[in-house]
Amino acid sequence: MKNNALISTIMSTDIIALNREDDLERAELLFKRHKIRHIPVVNEGVIIGMLSYTDLLRISFADAVDETETEIETLVYNMFTIDQVMAKNVVTIPSDATIKEVAKILAEKEFHALPVVDKGRLVGIVTTTDLINYLLKQL
């Protein structure tokens, strides 16, 4: 296993992002459509927060209702904004960080995703799933 492999080799660069003006219904749609669990919140390409699917579950009945029942979700989602639900103090990493450095951050902070930022701009995201897939290829 390479000790100096860069995170840029395993990060996702096809970024699904939200803006603070988006609503939580859009966020849930993106989570379900793309089968993802973390969405960076950006303002003109600069990360300002991170929204996780768990954040939505805390305020809604997203998994408790039938997919045809949207009234409850809409009512709950209309009570909150992206700004109110997202994590604001986001830890980021540069694309030239090593996979080992990222694994250490994910383990110590108990995060499941880290935005990758170069020169102040969001360029990717790396998740625990990306890391596990990398490790599986090495074995």
From TrEMBL:
Protein keywords: CBS domain
Protease recorded as keyword: no
Alphabetized SUPFAM superfamilies for the sequence: CBS-domain pair
Claim: Amino-acid biosynthesis is one of the keywords in the record: no
Coiled coil: none
Domain CBS residues, every copy: 11-67, 86-139
Cleavable signal peptide: none
Superkingdom of the source species: Bacteria
PANTHER family cross-referenced by the UniProt entry: CBS DOMAIN-CONTAINING PROTEIN, CBS DOMAIN-CONTAINING PROTEIN CBSX3, MITOCHONDRIAL
Protein name as it appears in the record: CBS domain-containing protein
